[in-house]
Amino acid sequence: MLNIAFIAHDRKKEEIVNFVIAYEHVFVPHKLYSTGTTGTRIMEQTNLSIHRFMSGPLGGDQQIGALVAQNEMDLIIFLRDPLMAQPHEPDIIALLRLCDVQGIPVATNVASAELLVKALERGDFAWRELVHKYKPGTAE
């Protein structure tokens, strides 16, 4: 079971909901997280259970970032709106930087999201399970 987060800017929320509906069967066995409104919208349209953090501008991006910093997140699907300025842009940049530091796969558009979810469906994320198994502080 992997930890997967969904984030979407306002004009991308419908797109992420449709994406998750299409791949709901892939997400069922995993632990799912999301920023507030995005998670609510996904849960209204699917049978998925999602742990929701605060809205992105209110700190939800940072809450997900805290899991990334601890290497507790395995995949992030973050549908960004590149044509709209975001008031919390520093939080977004910090989250993406943490993903780079920890080597966490992150998709920022539906094309890259689909490639990562297809890899997840094939079992190509087994390496993340090893990360959890051999995480410092865990008993062997």
UniProtKB/TrEMBL annotation:
SUPFAM superfamilies registered for this protein in UniProt: Methylglyoxal synthase-like
Give the GO biological process terms: methylglyoxal biosynthetic process
Q: Which reaction does it catalyse?
A: dihydroxyacetone phosphate = methylglyoxal + phosphate
Q: Does the keyword DNA-binding apply?
A: no
A Pfam family for this UniProt protein?
MGS
What PROSITE patterns does the database record attribute to this sequence?
METHYLGLYOXAL_SYNTH, MGS
Q: What class of enzyme is it?
A: lyase
GO molecular function terms listed in the Swiss-Prot or TrEMBL record: methylglyoxal synthase activity
Protein EC = 4.2.3.3
Question: Gene3D superfamilies attached here?
Answer: Methylglyoxal synthase-like domain
A GO CC term?
cytosol
Q: Which UniProt keywords apply?
A: Lyase
Residues recorded as binding substrate, renumbered to this chain, are: 9, 13, 35-38, 55-56, 88
Q: Where is the active site?
A: 61
**Domain MGS-like span(s) in chain numbering:** 1-140
Q: Which family does it belong to?
A: Belongs to the methylglyoxal synthase family.
Q: What is the purpose of this protein? A: Catalyzes the formation of methylglyoxal from dihydroxyacetone phosphate.
HAMAP family, per this entry? Methylglyoxal_synth
Name this protein carries in UniProt:
Methylglyoxal synthase
